[in-house]
Structures are given as C-alpha cells and as structure tokens.
C-alpha cells in the first residue's frame, strides 16, 4: 500500500513532499484550510473583500519577491506591470465586452511584453540605479496616462470606471481569487526551486562569478523580469475587477513600495513569506483605519494609527533587527516552542 501511495504521488517534486512535513509547511496548509473555510464562517461582503484584497496583494508581493529576492533585481517600479494589466483588463471589459478571463489574458500578455522591454532597458543597471531607474519608468507611465491630448487613447486623469466585477457573488469572487493565488504562488515557488531558480540565485549572489561560469546572465535577468511581470499582471487584473475602476495613480510609487514592505514583513526570498506578509499588511491596515476612526479629533491617535507611519516604523525595525522578516522570525520561534513541547 505504501508503494502504491508513492506511485500515486510520484509526480510531485521531492522538495514539496519534504516541505509538507516541515513546521512551516504544516502552518501553511492549516492557513489555506482556514482560508477555504472563511466563506462558510461568514458571508459578509466586507470581510470577504478584505481577504480578496489580501490575496490579490499576496500575488503582487510574491511577484516582486521573485524578482528581487531570487535574482537580486530590486525594482521600485513594479506598479508598471500591475497598472498596465489593470488598464488593459478594464479597457477590454468595458469597451470590448471581453469576459474576465479573456481580458485577464490580454492584461497579462501586455504586462509580460512590457516586462521584457523594461528588463532589457534595465540590464546595465544595478543596485540603487536599478531601483531608481524602474521607479522613474513607473512615474513616466503615470504622467503619460494623465496627458490631456492622449485622453482618447489613454483615458486621461479620470481613467476607466464601471469595470464589471469578477462575479456578482462575493463567495465566487473569493474562491476564484484564492485558486489563482494558490496556483500563482505554487508556480513561483516551483520555478525558484528548479534549475532556472538556482541559476537566478547564483546571479543574485555573484553575477560576475555566474558570468565566468558560462551563464548568460542577460538572458536570465530578462526572463526573471518577464516571469515577475506575468504574476504582477495577474494581480493587476484582479485588482481592476476588485476596485471596478482604474486611473493613472495606479502607477504611483506607493504601489511599488507597499509590496516591498509586504515582502520584508514575511521575509524576502521566501515567496510564501511575502504572501503572508501581504495578508498581515492588509489586515493591519484595516485595523489601524478602524482605530483611527474611534476619535478623529485626537492628533496622537491619528498619528499612531496612520498606516503609512506605522509601516514606515515597521520597515525601519525590519531592516535594523529582523532582516529575515518579522513573520519568518516569529515562525522560527514558534517552531522552537513546538519542538520543546514535543520534547525534541
């Protein structure tokens, strides 16, 4: 019987089988089970939408982490791919009556194409120059979409409104988004564990050494940009259907910076940690907003419940004291406690 089970799951990668048996693997599976049960526990639209937004940004944060954490290409302009996909999904659904999945394919395709172009443009840039270069390109897109004479083609400051939702049923939206999140994150983890992922990590750790070993670093850096932009495009498409509108502000650096904070919260170069960091960020943001509304006249309460202020402090704390991410560090402590309780 054991042999039959092994044969049945022989197509599953060994690292995935081993990961399931680890403490983090168990916590992740429990977390996913809880997510699947949420619409059963509550069908209030407010709570479902918070989790849907968290799942969208989980994909977005993981896509940034794939590029920065595994290839060392730190981007401050990741909103480029997120925004372009959101615009294309919105335009094709509103003006061409595309179904959501067809519009999503178009949005992702545009994001990957631009990811290829941006990857080539940024090949010679490294470190802070790459970060600033990608941020500049993002700002260029934001200003381009705001130019008045281009309004017939790029829709101007108002952007596109009345975007059809993914579904009129909040539970359906929840489960479709959840499935896409699981597929996206699983694919990114699989790529990071593959031979390609090993090559990308070698470029991150020592690009000169990788080139000396005969690795075509140019090729793999562009591929990393394309893969990352693909999943950022998935997130952008879902975000457009979630907000039901899109405007040039989607290209602003804010959207590029918050995914950095999300990844830092969960631990950079972990993919799953970035996804968990996105959930923490969105949920904490909602809690802080509710606390700030308790007494709108209290300046101290307003300051210390302002999400931007709190997350800035968190980022400083992470850089100084928890380089592996707060959530990752907490999980390690919980694992140690679990081992003690089991007498290991």
Total strand count, please?
2
| Shape-level CATH architecture | Orthogonal Bundle
* Major pleated sheet: 2 strands, antiparallel
Helix content: over 70%
Question: How would you describe this structure to a colleague?
Answer:
It is a single chain. The chain is mostly helical and 344 residues long. The chain has a single domain, classed as ABC transporter involved in vitamin B12 uptake, BtuC, CATH 1.10.3470. Helices cover 76% and strands 1% of the residues. It is built from 17 helices and two strands. It has helices at residues 2-8, 14-20, 23-41, 45-71, 79-95, 100-121, 127-144, 151-154, 170-193, 195-205, 207-212, 217-243, 253-266, 272-292, 299-304, 307-321, 326-341; strands at 160-161, 245-246. Strands 1-2 form a two-stranded antiparallel sheet. Helix 5 (79-95) runs antiparallel to helix 6, helix 6 runs antiparallel to helix 12 and helix 9 (170-193) packs antiparallel against helix 12. The protein is globular and about 70 Å long. The mean pLDDT is 85.
Topology:
Layout: H1 2-8, H2 14-20, H3 23-41, H4 45-71, H5 79-95, H6 100-121, H7 127-144, H8 151-154, E1 160-161, H9 170-193, H10 195-205, H11 207-212, H12 217-243, E2 245-246, H13 253-266, H14 272-292, H15 299-304, H16 307-321, H17 326-341
Antiparallel strand pairs: 1-2
Summarize this entry quickly.
This protein is mainly alpha-helical and 344 residues long. The chain has helices at residues 2-8, 14-20, 23-41, 45-71, 79-95, 100-121, 127-144, 151-154, 170-193, 195-205, 207-212, 217-243, 253-266, 272-292, 299-304, 307-321, 326-341, and strands spanning 160-161, 245-246. It has a single domain (44-341), classed as ABC transporter involved in vitamin B12 uptake, BtuC, CATH 1.10.3470.
């Amino acid at each position: 019987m054991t042999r039959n089970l092994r044969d049945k799951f022989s197509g599953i990668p060994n690292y995935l089988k081993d990961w399931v048996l680890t403490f983090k693997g168990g916590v992740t599976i429990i977390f996913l089970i809880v997510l699947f049960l949420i619409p059963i526990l509550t069908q209030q639209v407010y709570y479902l939408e918070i989790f849907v937004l968290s799942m969208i940004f989980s994909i977005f944060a993981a896509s940034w982490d794939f590029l920065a954490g595994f290839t060392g290409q730190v981007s401050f302009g990741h909103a480029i791919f997120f925004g372009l996909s959101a615009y294309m999904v919105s335009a094709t659904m509103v003006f061409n009556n595309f179904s959501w999945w067809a519009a999503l394919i178009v949005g992702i395709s545009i994001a990957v194409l631009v990811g290829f172009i941006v990857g080539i443009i940024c090949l010679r840039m490294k470190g802070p120059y790459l970060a600033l270069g990608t941020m500049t390109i993002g700002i260029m897109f934001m200003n381009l979409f705001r130019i008045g004479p281009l309004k017939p083609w790029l829709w101007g400051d108002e952007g596109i409104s009345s975007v059809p939702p993914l579904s009129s049923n909040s539970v359906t939206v929840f489960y479709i988004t959840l499935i896409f999140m699981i597929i996206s994150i699983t694919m990114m983890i699989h790529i990071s564990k593959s031979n390609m992922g090993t090559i990308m990590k070698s470029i991150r750790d020592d690009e000169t050494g990788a080139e000396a070993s005969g690795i075509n670093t140019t090729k793999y850096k562009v591929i990393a940009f394309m893969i990352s932009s693909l999943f950022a495009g998935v997130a952008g498409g879902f975000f457009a259907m979630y907000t039901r509108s899109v405007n040039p502000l989607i290209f602003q650096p804010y959207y590029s910076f918050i995914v950095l904070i999300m990844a830092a919260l969960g631990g950079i170069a972990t993919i799953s940690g970035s996804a968990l960091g996105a959930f923490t960020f969105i949920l904490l943001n909602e809690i802080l907003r509710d606390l700030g509304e308790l007494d709108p006249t209290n300046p101290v309460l307003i300051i210390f419940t302002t999400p931007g202020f709190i997350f800035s402090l968190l980022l400083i704390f992470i850089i100084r004291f928890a380089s592996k991410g707060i959530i990752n560090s907490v999980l390690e402590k919980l694992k140690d406690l679990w081992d003690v309780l089991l007498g290991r």
